[in-house]
Amino acid sequence: MDKQRAQWGTRAGFIFAAVGSAIGLGNIWRFPSVAYENGGGAFFLPYLFALLTAGIPLLIMEFTIGQKYRSSAPLSYFKIRKGAEWLGWWQVIVSFIIATYYAVILAWSLSYAYFSLNTRWGDDTEGYLFSSFLKVLPGENAGQIGSIVPSVFFPLLIVWVLTLAILFAGVKKGIERANRVFIPLLVIMFGIIVIRAITLDNATAGLQAFFEPDWSQLTNGKVWVAAYSQIFFSLSIAFGIMITYASYLPKKTDITNNAFITGFANSGFELLAGIGVFATLGFMAGQLGVGVNEVVSGGIGLAFVVFPQIINEIPTWPGLFGFLFFASLFLAGMTSLISIAEVFISGFQEKFGISRRKSVAFGAGAAAVISILYATQGGLYIFDTVDRFINQYGVALAGLVEIIFIAWIARELSALQNHANSMSDIRLGVWWKICLGLITPIVLGFMMIQTFTADLQSNYEGYPTSLIMTAGWGLSIAAILIGVLFTRFKWKGIDSSIPESTNHKGVAK
Amino acid sequence: MTGSAITMMVIGMVIIWGGLVASIANAVLKSKKNRA
Fold first, then answer.
1. Is B30 in the A-facing interface, judged by CB distances under 8 Å?
2. Mutation for testing the B interface, residue in A11, A23, A211 having most B CBs under 10 Å
3. Domains of chain A as residue ranges with CATH
4. Which pLDDT does position B7 carry in this prediction?
5. pLDDT in tens, B1-36
6. What secondary structure, in 3-state letters, does A30-60 show?
7. Does B23 touch chain A if contact means CB atoms closer than 8 Å?
């Protein structure tokens, strides 16, 4: 079966795909506001520290697991230790859930790229988003579904048709080819946005706000946790994505350098996004005659409320600026959605011994059908709750369990280190084991306790308890239980033994 | 922009984009060496 395993056409193809997975919506709408709120220029210190002590070491670990065991996440964990298969399925289910709502944001971006051409949102951008476009139910009806919103449903259909078409084409002809086009296009388009943004009036005020260091923040523990969270959530770690993508690498490849390129490319794009976003916010603050601090926001509010307001004010070719911004969001999200879907496609294919086409049709098809839930009038509340809980108690918690399992239970770090060193230019030393065995679990554990305590004290965003219990806690627990349930099925038509090419120390022969 | 803001901008660019360029250069050089 290993001989038939799909493989990337080139090393660059793998890097483009890994970078495409890491660069997502969060790079554009999360990083700039997180950096600003946590010390501005001073935030780079904890951010770079987190990149080097957690981000890149974790990437190396997941790349090595995937390349060594040449299997999906569940089968890789199964090969490490039979009892750990559930962990892989947990990550598969988490990826499946994320794919269902992530696609909807791409649908919004697609629509807004089109709306930009004639700034359809008018002057009341907030009212347009929530009332005219999403037709959101009033807050007191949060938790209800309402009817399907056609303006979201049809673009969602386009997103899924495109995603399925790429996934049907396979790893080399579909995912690799798409990323080879999408990533350079994304960088070019966002580069144009940045050049336009820094030439706008008052752009330097925005850059000043973004880069001005507040050194006193470095003694604040929350700033360091924010840096680790940003790195962790930004790099597509603990989804099973990087294990799956690395499983398509050839038997000889430079694992460590691939991880460095992926980590730095992701951070490089975040820095570019920070410059573009804050230069634009500086322009807006100047137009309104207020401080930059009064216009800073992040997430959906930044992309779909604040940016349309800014686009309204752009003096020349506002439509083109808006189109490039939302098309960039779409491309950044599209490459991530493909990678998220590949996790469960690969897992289902190996578990049930079915063809790739069947796995795409059933796996991504099911995700597409479920995603219609988020194209309803109540979809925004469900999306917000699911996103918050599945990220904290799906991705982050699974990441913590993964690192504890690899470092402390299976004691696999030495074997993985030997495997990576046997084929990489940059050799991993004891620093790598310290980062993964001590620093990362401590910081992740602290993050989890902090979030868990806050979530027990009050309902997230003040949403109704019924919504929090079902779409929040309920779904997060269900992801684990379904993961365990999957281990009850036997692997069909797959060699689930440890690859012959490795000895007990994990060194390639 | 103040001097401290410009300094942080330059440091960020040099380390992050410099790190990316160095990693890519290393990969390219290694691949050329392997081919030779």
1. yes
2. A211
3. 13-486 (1.20.1740.10)
4. 95
5. 899 999 999 999 999 999 999 999 999 998 888 777
6. CHHHHHHHCCEHHHHHHHHHHHHHHHHHHHH
7. yes
For B15, the closest of A11, A40, A48 (CB atoms) is A48
CA distance B25 to chain A (A): 10
Q: How many CB pairs under 8 A join A and B?
A: 69
Q: Are residues A11 and B27, on separate chains, in Cβ contact within 8 Å?
A: yes
Quick: pLDDT tens for A397-436.
999 999 999 999 999 999 999 999 999 988 999 999 999 9
The answer, for B28 touching chain A at a CB cutoff of 8 Å, is no
Is a pLDDT exceeding 70 seen at residue A504? no
What is A93-161 written as a DSSP string?
HHHHHHHHHHHHHHHHHHHHHHHHTTTTT-S-HHHIIIIIIS-PPPGGGBTB---B-HHHHHHHHHHHH
Mutate to test the interface with B, among A214, A260, A292 (most CBs of B within 10 A): A260
Q: Is B6 on the interface with A (CB under 8 A)?
A: yes
- Tell me phi and psi for residue A144, to 5 degrees: -85, 155
Task: Please give the ipTM for the structure prediction.
Answer: 0.95
Contact yes or no for A208 and B5 at CB 8 A: yes
For position A3, what pLDDT does the model report?
52
The 10 Å Cβ neighbour count of residue A353 is 14
Percentage of chain A beyond pLDDT 90 is 80
Q: How far is A450 from chain B (nearest CA, A)?
A: 29
Non-local (6+) Cβ contacts of A180 within 8 A are A12, A13, A16
Structure tokens at A172: 């080399």
Distance CA A357, CA A351 (A): 14
Residue A1: name the closest of A509, A500, A504, A360 by CA: A500
Q: Which of A66-70, A254-258, A457-461, A486-490 has the lowest mean pLDDT?
A: A457-461
| pLDDT (tens digit per residue) in A212-240 | 999 999 998 889 988 998 998 899 898 99
The pLDDT tens digits of the residues spanning A287-332 come to 999 999 998 888 889 899 999 999 998 888 899 999 999 999 999 9
Cβ neighbors of A84 (< 8 A, separation 6 or more) are A77, A78, A405, A409, A410
- What is the spatial distance between Cα A444 and Cα A53, in angstroms, rounded to a whole number? 12
Q: Do B8 and A264 touch (CB under 8 A)?
A: no
pTM as predicted:
0.92
